[in-house]
Amino acid sequence: MSRPDLSSDPAIAAYKAEMRAVGRKQRFAGLICVVLGAILVWSVGSAGAAGPVVLWVGYALLAVGWVLMLAAIFMRTRYHRRRMAELD
């Protein structure tokens, strides 16, 4: 993998777009899980007898969502380090 050319504004914009594309699916899935988990945890009071189950599912979705978000950050950082490394 070669080092990106960051000598001009269009090249910088292209590299930023490339970096935004890394881990996009994981970030989006993580965001959806976090939002759904927060909604479930917030709505436990109106769940009635199913409250404890809804609470656990909400917490599970929150945990999965944050793990996906952290995985996307890890993937992006690793990709950036590989791109910026000097190959001899």
List keywords for this structure.
single chain; 88 residues; mainly alpha; 3 helices; 75% helix; 0% strand
Give an account of the 3D structure.
The protein has 88 residues and is mostly helical. It has one domain. The chain is 75% helix and 0% strand. It has three helices and no strands. The chain has helices at 9-21, 24-42, 51-84. α2 packs antiparallel against α3. The longest helix has 34 residues, at 51-84. It is elongated. The chain starts with 8 loop residues before the first helix and ends with a helix.
Concise account of the structure shown:
By secondary structure, this protein is mostly helical.
Which helices and strands occur, and which strands form pairs?
Elements: H1 9-21, H2 24-42, H3 51-84
Helix pairs in contact: 2-3
